[in-house]
Amino acid sequence: MSGKPRLTYCNGRGRMEPVRWLLAAAGVEFEENFLETREQYEKLIKDGVLMFQQVPLVEIDGMKMVQTRAILSYIAGKYNLYGKDLKERALIDMYVEGITDLMQMILMFPFSPPEAKEKNIDSIKERATNRYFPVFEKVLKQHGQDFLVGNKFSWADVQLIEAILAVEEKIPAVLSGFPQLQAFKIRMSNMPTIKKFLQPGSPRKPPPDECYVETVLKIFKK
């Protein structure tokens, strides 16, 4: 065992991608174990490795962690990305939960039927521009600081830059009415650990394609 966190999931974004983002932003190297067959997944269940018979699975500090939210909370706390007190943590939690709601739409998009994709893109754009991005635009404008909470880099910043880039892949001009978020995107993308993660050859996964969708359905759909 190398001591590096070990991530078990499919070779794609899904629910593991925010974990990759957070570890990378914290400057933590990790190893990955990619599931390719249903048999591999069933063996994890049979061996009692998955508490709720679900992945993502992250092995860290002697624990076999499941449930994305629990994994992310632990990593954020461990690497000092979770605020300085309970109030800051509550703010970070609220921001993260909001971003997660938006990202759920992105997560499910590749699995929607072809005839629904245009409608789903419109829904993502509507939610991003009317419900979620205005919140962060207002926060950044009001306090005039570089980061969302406590003028310090946190889990919320990582989740937001991930979401911005994911939405831009589908709607390139989505930030056109959000100057604060445009500036935030530039700042975050130039932070050394994030800049490294955005380079070709990093553990960051590409947008899901048909091969990824087929693999996920083969492994997890009964």
TrEMBL record:
Residue ranges constituting the GST N-terminal domain according to the UniProt record: 3-83
GO molecular-function terms, A-Z: glutathione transferase activity
Any one GO biological process: glutathione metabolic process
Protein name: glutathione transferase
CDD domains found in the cross-reference section: GST_C_Alpha
Record keyword Transferase present: yes
Residues annotated as domain GST C-terminal: 85-209
Entry EC no(s): 2.5.1.18
Lineage: Eukaryota, Metazoa, Chordata, Craniata, Vertebrata
Alphabetized InterPro entries for the sequence: Glutathione-S-Trfase_C-like, Glutathione-S-Trfase_C_sf, Glutathione_S-Trfase, Glutathione_S-Trfase_N, GST_alpha, GST_C, GST_superfamily, Thioredoxin-like_sf
Tagged with keyword Transferase: yes
Alphabetical UniProt keywords: Transferase
Organism superkingdom: Eukaryota
Family of this protein: Belongs to the GST superfamily. Alpha family.
